[in-house]
Amino acid sequence: MSGEESVLEAEGSVPTTAESGGSGAGDSIGDSPLRREDARALRGETTYTDDFGREAAALAFVRSPHAHAHVDSIDTENAAAIDGVLAVYTWEDLADGDSPMELPVSTGPLDCEVPGHPVLARDRVRYDGQPVAAVVATDRYVAADGVDAVEVAYDPLGVESDPVAATDEGAPTLFDAAPDNVAAVGELGDREETDRAFDGAERVVAVELENNRLIPSALEPRAALAEFDRTEGFTVTMSSQSPHGHRRKLSHTLGVPERQIRVISPDVGGGFGHKGHHHPGEAMAAWAARDLGTSVKWTATRSGNYREGAHGRDHRTTAELALDGDGTFRGLRVDTHAGIGGFALGGGGAMPGWYGRLLASQYEIPAVYCRSRCVFTTTAPVHSYRGAGRPEAIYVTERLVDAAADELGVDPVDLRRKNLVGADDFPHETAVGATYDSGNYEPTLDDAVDAVEGAPRGGERDDDGRLRGVGIASYVESTGGGFESGVVRVHPDGGVTVSAGTHDHGQGHGTIYAQIVAEELPVPTGEIEVVEGDTDKVPTGTGTFGSRSTVVGGNAVAESARSVFDKARRIAAAELDADPTEVEPTDSGFAVASEGAEECTFAEIAGAAYGRGLPEGLSPGLEATTFYELADTAYTFGTHAVAVAVDPETGEFDIERYVAVDDCGVRVNPQIVAGQVHGGVAQGIGQARTERATYDEDGGLAAATMLDYALPRANDLPDIEVRTQETPSHNELGVKGIGEGGTVAAPPAVVNAVVDALGVEHLDMPLTPETVRGAVEN
Amino acid sequence: MSGEESVLEAEGSVPTTAESGGSGAGDSIGDSPLRREDARALRGETTYTDDFGREAAALAFVRSPHAHAHVDSIDTENAAAIDGVLAVYTWEDLADGDSPMELPVSTGPLDCEVPGHPVLARDRVRYDGQPVAAVVATDRYVAADGVDAVEVAYDPLGVESDPVAATDEGAPTLFDAAPDNVAAVGELGDREETDRAFDGAERVVAVELENNRLIPSALEPRAALAEFDRTEGFTVTMSSQSPHGHRRKLSHTLGVPERQIRVISPDVGGGFGHKGHHHPGEAMAAWAARDLGTSVKWTATRSGNYREGAHGRDHRTTAELALDGDGTFRGLRVDTHAGIGGFALGGGGAMPGWYGRLLASQYEIPAVYCRSRCVFTTTAPVHSYRGAGRPEAIYVTERLVDAAADELGVDPVDLRRKNLVGADDFPHETAVGATYDSGNYEPTLDDAVDAVEGAPRGGERDDDGRLRGVGIASYVESTGGGFESGVVRVHPDGGVTVSAGTHDHGQGHGTIYAQIVAEELPVPTGEIEVVEGDTDKVPTGTGTFGSRSTVVGGNAVAESARSVFDKARRIAAAELDADPTEVEPTDSGFAVASEGAEECTFAEIAGAAYGRGLPEGLSPGLEATTFYELADTAYTFGTHAVAVAVDPETGEFDIERYVAVDDCGVRVNPQIVAGQVHGGVAQGIGQARTERATYDEDGGLAAATMLDYALPRANDLPDIEVRTQETPSHNELGVKGIGEGGTVAAPPAVVNAVVDALGVEHLDMPLTPETVRGAVEN
């Protein structure tokens, strides 16, 4: 960070107008101007969904205390009689209307026909905390009283939270359509060819591992404020990563056309994938707002958020690597049980397209076969969480490579290096049909290895008696899927409004998009505002998740800016009485290059665009809209290296060194890239050492509060050293996404280091003191 | 009107989503589906600016009781001390900041450099009611108390409200830069050639007349609710015909970039040009909102609206027509003094481009010369009012033609017919360079004349002793100036949102634009919503005035719809595995014409557009934005015929018959066209018989309330018979505007009829009983 200007003085925010000021110098692609988003947050001026609608009625849910039960009866009478309770709803009320009031079933291919998630339980609950009834009251305190007064009679059924055990005979069945609880079996790769590779292999190494179930823990819980107007339709202000995606989903659930729903997403206090998913709260609030003719707000409690909000990960995997005697990889065979919870909402990231395609990672593996079973368990539904299938895949591969090195008695770095896809082999098509756009893997491996060169390892004891270990994890990550809209609108006074269908919730889109547009147009970033988060203000959008915003949103915005540039240059040429090809951009407009004299300012060009006397063939206006889609996603990659020191007495360990070497192509704003790496690594370390959504034997979520669910704290986190390399991708900006790399690389790197320190074969995450101490003792 | 469906059941509204339902049948161009706008209004669900911001602070103005005075001192102390008064502002407060806080000077060419209209008087007031100080208080009652408590010391100066007298030597001077009060002299046509035509003419006929000053009387007075946020900038909700225009003007006055201002215009209760103009209220409210950090609302009182709001017309004209002995027109010479009030805000419609270009009307006149003097008078500023220069021009010509017929002793119809531009002479270029796109004048004249065939005239007395007269007025009207934006956005579920930069305030854009889009796309109107009135939701816009919305907005929307159609057809072709040229639209999608079998619904196409696997070369999304501008404006024309019966005892007269024959090209919705004609004729009759903004000898507006300013009432208005003809214009839809034709044709038609009944040479409007009785007596 430059340190020369204060964050509070520097920049504006997103969405911003009044404060989009900036210097205009040093704000090009590759510079790191201060984030314009930060001043508002530091001043406490950010406004989250719960800051709106202070007069709105409050919605609260009656939640099932059982993980699996028949709902025999619901008595709402006492609740409805409470002064200030406006309505108490059960499924019977919702079933009256035309609205489906069922969250849509997973878009992934399922092998069975199961119903969607009812907004209120139909006659059965399938996970602890499932909404059974809804109370709307004058305020949230009365609503809570109402919730307490609803009497529900349950008939408990059997529970099973483990996705492997859930497929056992005798396990409780969640849906008749899936008697073995398997919702879908996804296969990727050629099974027979892979089996042949294994049959002919000199060595086969196997690991069995769990990718621990995690709970996305945004600081701001989910929230929605719903309003209904007979003319305007629904307006739903909600904490969303994907306003247009939520509009589409609400359209399904409410049974009304998309044009009758406006979704506004104001400041969002963290998302991590979780806020791209559709939950009962927003649909119930909207339905109640229409029913009651008043605005209705729902803000999740923390435990409600934890119990009902979509969780992440939850894989149980057996993986095998076939090698030649010299360590050349011949085949990879993976079998995964992915717990998807009590309803099929998103496939849990287990479907082949999300997971299996990355298993080969950076390595040349001629035969890969992956089978993923999506399994219903009596738990909260699982959906994509920062990384979404990528961390699960890379964790498998990187643990397996270390296990193989151990078994073969070779240096895990050498084993990796031997099998890397070569720098000349791009675009590279993998055995399962993924096409890596560009890459240069070995230098990032070397750089990471260099960084921990000389660090004690292999269980060496240091002066404090701590066992030392070093871990390496290399990865690839597919980024930038789907399409995105980007609008660049020049106002008559030359100011610019940029909008995109992505939605910032910490990423810094306002800063980045302004840099991208300022690179294309002779306008300083301070005159460029960025607008997101309102389906009425943005043409359409996919949203922000999957490390996609800069890749697809950035390229959409850039392409629109180039269109605007071309038209502006034609107008400038007319104003300067020159041929467009002679006209070149200056700092603040256009001039005839050869003359270097008269300049036409960008504001003058904008004025002319909306005025009279435009050159023949040009229509008025100066704006462009682009819907951008990558032909193939862009594959970010890198290697992280970790050095640990394990206290064998307590099972605690310190991360002595953490070096992240990532290559996400062209970095629009290196400081923001570094911030993304820091955040991702912190979350990855959280998975590796502290977090696990544990269900107790009755099926209750044991970690339903922030006291019980162990997020990493500052003292769990090391200094994170960020190193970079830039191998451009093939899109126009040359960019790849970096939002998730840290969550992908950190878990295997940390586990590999601790495993190295302890000299064990494997340890499942999280590496709590109890787990580590147990391994030391064995 | 079909009468088969109730307005309340039928359609939605604008802007609308939830209620845009409609049958989809009989909603094509040329049909008259019920207006979707009406149900909300009839149910009382419309929301005007004053319905918002109920918690906002209230702004009220201290207004000058003098028409012309120095402001010696302003004592705000007592006002500021009132409990609930938040602030009292004078010019000194405004001058402190960076904002100009002066409404911009007329965009027409001025011959002198004069300042803009200060939002609060600088040191001098120039018309009765000019804002001198502003009070912001907790509510409007306290604000009114505050206004009463402000003490202003004035030093009165001389007043003059007549634009001819204001140019006399000795008249009080408003600005040193214009010592004779002439702000601009506009000339159009070749003076010498015209003089030669007159020199060689056998007959010259002259009239002297006044086009009476009018006050736009929208039911909803001007209003603005201003909010300021350090991040979002200004949001100004206001009663505007042109949200983007007001954003641009506010940008000037507040001195902030356009991107930092959002203008929202909700339901607007009448405009008539007036609500396209920039007034002090919205600027002062915005400035105060920022200054005080609270939302501030200003709603004009009726008298404040009348005294300070821009007025219309106010011409004093001498006009001469040169003829051959056989009645062939040889030349037209016009000299006009146009009062523009105390500040130069809009040129009063007097500038040659607005006024002189229409003087030749439907006639072949080889030489035309017009001189217009824009004159400062100590009155409210004058700006465009329904018709905006066109009624003033046609009134001159049609009075002159009748006077010439009288002098030559020929039938005024014959004299008109003899000089009409022939049906084969289009496009027709006039002597002053206007190019009429298309026309066929004689049939409309014949039709109108036929309608009053046999009506007693020429002062014939009927059985009641009433003097009977018949009047004819033919006209042309330029419509559809400037550019407009039109967006057609298809949502993934196939619903359509249309937006345009125009703004409905009674015209029925929602109904019309939906018809236009349904004509191009296989989507029923009920699935098409129309959005206007928000600078954040609409790319850009010019606004609704000058009979332009269907012409430029409609064509913009149509062009976007055609772009969407082309892309939809390509997608359909891919879905149907056919060549795009083989694919034809059906009622609800596309099918291969030759096969007539498999159909691809529009919703499926929309889904595909936002999904994966689009045909090569197509980017995702299904929407288009068009900025449409006519090469030349479209000239509507027609003839109105009136039969009157004058009571010589009372001076009252009845309009026995009113026939309007108008040709506005293709009529998208004939019922709405008829409604526009009705409204325009009513307003034109108001000018002809009751309305006049009279200033007293002290310069005070004598007609500052609705009791004193005589709007026409139901009993002043006749049954209006609407007849039509359709001569398409050259734009893609073939449409011309019809919003103002009635205000253009009615005044001369009515005056010609009364003049015919009384056998006098001329009578100035308004034809009050006093005026008529005076004429009878003479």
Structural topology:
The structure is a homodimer of 778-residue chains.
Chain A lengths: L6 H4 L27 H5 L14 E7 L5 E7 L1 H4 L4 E5 L1 H5 L6 E2 L13 E2 L5 E2 L5 E7 L2 H10 L1 E6 L25 E8 L1 H9 L3 E9 L11 E7 L3 E6 L4 H12 L6 E4 L15 H13 L3 E4 L2 H7 L6 E9 L5 E13 L25 E10 L13 H19 L3 H8 L8 E2 L5 E2 L4 H11 L15 E13 L3 E8 L5 E5 L8 H12 L7 E4 L17 H28 L6 E3 L3 E4 L6 E3 H8 L13 E7 L4 E13 L6 E11 L6 H20 L31 E5 L15 H18 L10 H9 L1
Parallel strand pairs in A: 1-14, 12-13, 16-17, 22-23, 29-30
Antiparallel strand pairs in A: 1-7, 2-6, 2-8, 3-7, 4-5, 9-17, 10-15, 11-12, 11-14, 15-16, 18-19, 20-28, 21-22, 21-27, 24-25, 25-26, 28-29
Oligomer category: homodimer
| Known CATH architecture of the largest domain in chain A | 2-Layer Sandwich
Q: What is the C-alpha radius of gyration of chain A, as a whole number of Å?
A: 27 Å
- CATH top level assignment of the largest domain in chain A: Alpha Beta
Helical content class of chain A: 25-40%
Portion in beta strands of chain A: 15-25%
Biggest pleated-sheet summary of chain A: 7 strands, mixed
Largest interface: A-B, 53 and 53 residues
**Distance separating the two termini of chain A:** 47 Å
Mean pLDDT of chain A: 93
Cross-sheet strand order for the largest sheet of chain A: 3-7-1-14-11-12-13
The CATH homologous superfamily of the largest domain in chain A is named: Aldehyde oxidase/xanthine dehydrogenase, molybdopterin binding domain
Query: Which word captures the global form of chain A?
Result: globular
Structural class of chain A: alpha+beta
In the predicted model, the low-confidence regions of chain A spanning at least 5 consecutive residues are 1-24
Q: Please give the domain count of chain A.
A: 3
Number of DSSP E strands of chain A:
30
CATH topology of the largest domain in chain A: Aldehyde Oxidoreductase, domain 4
Counting DSSP H or I runs of 4 or more residues, the number of helices of chain A is 18
Protein name (chains A, B): Xanthine dehydrogenase family protein molybdopterin-binding subunit
Biased composition (Basic and acidic residues) (chains A, B): 33-43
Domain Aldehyde oxidase/xanthine dehydrogenase a/b hammerhead (chains A, B): 43-158
GO molecular function (chains A, B): oxidoreductase activity
